[in-house]
Amino acid sequence: MFNKIKQIKDLRSQAKQLQNTLAAESVTTDKAGITVIMNGNMEITSLKISESAKSNLEHNLQEAFNEAAKSTQKVMAKKMQDMGGLGDLSKFLK
Question: Residue 82 in contact with residue 22, Cβ under 8 Å?
Fold first, then answer.
């Protein structure tokens, strides 16, 4: 029983470390004249809109945000893989 508690505590610590590492990452996407910078927590930290993008702003923003989210997810998945992920979660699902 105490072993499982320690494993859960270790897993929580790993998750926190991973979250902090991912938050420090950033992805820049330029789509249709809109530049979006997004951090690993999927928060937009910068947004720049060119004059040419303003004519179809809603559509261009949607495309730029979606592209930024996809790019961020790919970077974060690679980072998690490089860090060893969160280990084997199956032992906690029994």
Answer: no
Calpha distance 29→79 (Å, rounded): 18
pLDDT given for residue 5 in this prediction: 84
**Bridge partners, residue 44, by sequence:** 38
Six-digit token string for 41 = 């927590």
Q: How many domains does the chain have?
A: 1
**Lowest-pLDDT range of 21-35, 38-52, 80-94:** 80-94
Q: Is the dihedral of CA 90, 12, 17, 45 positive or negative?
A: positive
Q: How many residues does the chain have?
A: 94
Q: What CATH number corresponds to the domain at position 33?
A: 3.30.1310.10
| Tokens representing residue 68 in the block | 């930024």
Task: Choose among 22, 91, 31, 25: nearest CA to 60.
Answer: 31
Query: pTM value?
Result: 0.61
Coil/strand/helix, residue 89: helix
